[in-house]
Amino acid sequence: MPQEAHYRERRAMTRYPHPFTASIAEFVFPMSCQPEFKAECLDMTSKGAMLEVCSIIPKGSVQQVSIELPGFEKKLHKNSLLNCDSPYQIRVVSRVIWATVKNDTSVIGIEFLNMNKSAEQALARYLKEKRTQGLPDNKS
């Protein structure tokens, strides 16, 4: 029997594999003293994301993550909800639920822990728009 027959999808949420620019810093006070690392958000759901970071990020650690939602600022500007053209970012406290490290680069899975209501609504709207635009979904 093929090995794929034993595979069962564990994720309840559709992942969106469109790459997003992100940054990550350990969530320890004072935050202004924490080094911030650039990251690439490889895919995302409304509950978490997978990031690639050029640093070692340990499993179980709590991080503050900022993720840019490309093009979303134009939508907000058009609806008079935002007056600047800078990329719209969500900031969320997250827990690293898994980590793979190779050559001082981490690929990590994070779950969002504490997202404010406006960021939660913006992310839900952004992902809904991406879904209706027909971006390929990835549940693997």
From TrEMBL:
Domain PilZ: 36-128
UniProt superkingdom: Bacteria
Classification via SUPFAM superfamilies: PilZ domain-like
One GO molecular-function entry: cyclic-di-GMP binding
Transmembrane segments: none
Entry-linked InterPro entries: PilZ_domain
Name of the featured protein: PilZ domain-containing protein
Native species: Halodesulfovibrio aestuarii
